[in-house]
Every structure is written in structure tokens, then in C-alpha cells.
Design goal:
α1 runs antiparallel to α4. The strands form two sheets. A seven-stranded mixed β-sheet has the order 7-8-9-6-10-11-12, with helices on both faces. It folds into two domains: 117 residues, Dynein light chain 2a, cytoplasmic (Beta-Lactamase), CATH 3.30.450; 169 residues, Rossmann fold (3-Layer(aba) Sandwich). It has ten helices and twelve strands. By secondary structure, the chain is α/β, with parallel strands linked by helices. A hairpin with a 3-residue loop joins β3 and β4.
Length: 315
């Protein structure tokens, strides 16, 4: 591979930030998670610079893990405080960190435009490092037929794979958004259903330990659906489902729930059969699906099942 001209890359990134001031930082990583170069928005104050810099290790971990598992994909995602864009350029990754009010419909075409320039630099092709100002790049014409905003809960015993399931769906590893003293991890994500409906998710991953039981009731407020997970290799997590279902019924009124048997990749360690899972779901009128958060098997399908039932409740 030719050694990329980072000075020219930096000029492109600097011009990108000047064209779109909502971008707080633009970074280039390799596919092993190593940071090669970065440019910060000159308008950031010291606290904002520190907060943005602290995300580098989490971004690096995400890239490394996603490439090792073969799960990396170009993506856009949101957390409580920032929005992120990831674009693969051969064996390089362009990462944009944007403020929460930024419009990804505007930034996404810019990211593709800049990724093309960096690809040419990587191939030792001379380019003009300038980036057009806002409005010069055509926005995508895709518009949703319907648009929904849903708060959903991820429930189940500790260690059943709730956080990994959330990570695999949202393609996020930004554990800086985890509130360890509050027992909740909140991730925001957008998802298209059938290329027509745009779903805005607020995913609340609630701590499963008993010490958080009194606190969890607060987080049920406003929830419109839930995924209830158990570990197919742990009988205790399956037996505790009745406790979780009682908690759901105490804190909500008839929200749709999908029962999820996770870790089906561990076939030799399996303790709960698919038939047992189906019977438990039927007992409470829930849908049932089996997943592997490790391999991402059925992760998107799980959220689709829940979305279908939540949309029915809206109609």
C-alpha cells in the first residue's frame, strides 16, 4: 500500500470542518483502530476538546472489534451528546464527530464526498483539497413515508447479552454514555423499515442486578416496547423471566414485548430449548425469537418484530 499523504488529508479535513461547523472533529483510523490523523474544530472550547478527545479510545475499540468480527459497516449513529459518521476507505476509516443538533441528511453526502477525495489520495492521485460550502452538495432525496420515535427497553438478568445486543444493533461502542451510578445505558439510533418508514430509537439498556430493582421502575416511564432477554445457556436467567414479566406488568400497560433467547452460538452449552422458549412466550402472549449477539444473528430481525407491534399500536 502507498503511504498516504497525511498533510493533504489534513487539508481536506480542515476544509470539511470549515464548510460544516457542526462537525467537531474529523479523524482517520486504520482498520486496526490506530488513529492516523485528526482535525479539531477551532471553535471548540477546552472542555469540548477534552470531551471529544476522550472518545478516541472508544472509537478505536469499535473499529478494531468490528473489523475483527467482520461486522464493520458504514453507519451513522447518535448518542445523548453527539452524532457520529463512519466511512470505510479501503483499509482506512473516516470518522466524523458532530454536535447533537447537526443534520445527518446534510453531513452524510459531505462524508461521502470527502471519502472519495481521501480514496484518491490513498491511491496517490492528485486532488483539489477544497470542500464546497453548505448547499453546493446535493442532499439525498430519500424521504420517509412515515416517521416514528420509540423508546424501548432492553431487559433481563445481568450477563444475558443486553448491552452486546444493543451494540450490535446500533453499531455503537460509546460506553462513555453509560451511567454506572444510575444503572442505565442509553443509545439512540435510526433504522429504516422496508425502505419506507424511518424509526428513531431511544434504546434504554437497564442494569439487571437486583440492587437496581428499585431504580428501574423510573426508567419504564414512556416506554413503548421492550425486548426481554435470557441466556439459552443459563437456566437461572430463564427461570427469572417470571420476575421480569411481573416488573414489566407493574410498570407499564400492555406494551409489546419480544422474548429473546440469546447466545445460540454456544450450541454445546445450551440448557434451554427453543420449544421451552416458545412456550414461555406463548404463556404471556409475547413474540419469540432466538439470537446471537456475538455473531449478530437475528439482531435486526428482533428489533423489526418489536417495531411492527409498536407501529400497530400507533395506528
Amino acid at each position: 500500500m502507498l503511504k498516504i499523504d497525511l498533510s493533504l488529508v489534513n487539508k481536506v479535513l480542515e476544509n470539511l470542518i470549515n464548510a460544516l461547523t457542526s462537525i467537531q472533529a474529523a479523524m482517520i483510523f486504520d482498520n486496526k483502530g490506530n488513529l492516523l490523523t485528526s482535525m479539531m474544530n477551532s471553535t471548540l472550547d477546552e472542555e469540548e476538546i477534552g470531551g471529544t478527545t476522550s472518545l478516541i479510545s472508544f472509537i478505536s475499540d469499535k473499529i478494531k472489534i468490528d473489523f475483527e468480527t467482520g461486522l464493520f459497516q458504514n453507519s451513522s449513529l447518535s448518542t445523548d451528546y453527539r452524532k457520529f459518521i463512519f466511512r470505510q476507505i479501503d483499509d482506512l476509516i473516516l470518522v466524523l464527530i458532530c454536535d447533537l443538533k447537526s443534520d445527518l441528511n446534510i453531513i452524510n453526502p459531505y462524508s461521502d464526498y470527502v471519502a472519495t477525495k481521501i480514496l484518491k489520495i490513498n491511491k496517490n492521485v492528485q486532488i483539489d483539497p477544497s470542500v464546497p460550502t453548505l448547499g453546493k452538495i446535493e442532499r439525498p432525496k430519500r424521504k420517509p413515508k412515515n416517521e416514528y420515535v420509540f423508546k424501548i427497553l432492553i431487559l433481563g438478568d445481568a450477563g444475558v447479552g443486553k448491552t452486546t445486543t444493543t451494540v450490535r444493533f446500533a453499531q455503537a461502542l460509546f460506553t462513555s454514555e453509560y451511567k454506572p451510578t444510575l444503572g442505565v445505558n442509553i443509545v439512540r439510533n435510526e433504522f429504516w423499515m422496508n425502505d419506507t418508514d424511518l424509526i428513531h430509537f431511544s434504546i434504554w439498556d437497564l442494569a439487571g442486578q437486583d440492587r437496581w430493582a428499585s431504580m428501574r421502575g423510573i426508567y419504564y416511564s414512556g416506554a413503548q416496547g421492550a425486548l426481554l432477554l435470557f441466556d439459552t445457556t443459563r437456566l437461572d436467567s430463564f427461570r427469572n423471566l417470571d420476575k421480569w414479566i411481573k416488573e414489566i406488568n407493574t410498570n407499564t400497560i400492555n406494551i409489546p414485548v419480544v422474548l429473546v433467547g440469546n447466545k445460540i452460538d454456544l450450541k454445546d452449552l445450551r440448557k434451554v430449548s427453543k420449544e421451552e422458549g416458545i412456550r414461555k412466550a406463548q404463556e404471556y402472549g409475547y413474540r419469540y425469537i432466538e439470537t446471537s449477539a456475538k455473531t449478530s444473528e437475528n439482531i435486526k430481525e428482533t428489533f423489526k418484530l418489536l417495531v411492527k407491534d409498536m407501529i400497530k399500536g400507533k395506528i
